[in-house]
Write a structure and sequence with these properties.
about 120 residues; about 75% helix; globular; DUF4396 domain-containing protein; membrane
């Protein structure tokens, strides 16, 4: 998102946020799929992809949405790498993105009594 905001602001903030969310979701799904394939679980590719998509899609959507909203609210969509306030906004938005899906994740863990994988 920062790259697009800094070097391609003519695209518009709505498109930039949509692209940012799509790339965030796709990289998360890819990483989780690879970890499920080659990690402790050793799942076949189709099962790894299905598990990755099913286990945390709502959490990822929540995280990406909240992070983008907080970032935009605090920075107005401008990227100023030299500004300490920009970096404070980055930390706040990442923290908000981390905290936002915790209630859902807690509910899921309590409901099923175990981790999702």
């Amino acid at each position: 998102m920062w790259y697009l905001q800094a070097f391609h602001p003519e695209i518009g903030i709505g498109t930039i946020m949509a692209v940012s969310m799509a790339t965030g979701l796709s990289t998360s799904l890819l990483l989780e799929t690879v970890l499920l394939k080659y990690g402790r679980d050793k799942l076949p590719w189709p099962a790894a992809a299905k598990t990755a998509a099913g286990m945390s899609m709502i959490s990822m959507l929540t995280m990406e949405t909240v992070q983008n909203m907080v970032d935009y609210h605090l920075t107005g969509g401008t990227v100023q790498f030299e500004s300490p306030m920009f970096w404070v906004a980055a930390v706040v938005s990442m923290s908000a993105g981390f905290l936002a899906p915790l209630p859902y994740n807690y509910h899921r863990l309590r409901k099923y009594g175990r981790a999702c994988h």
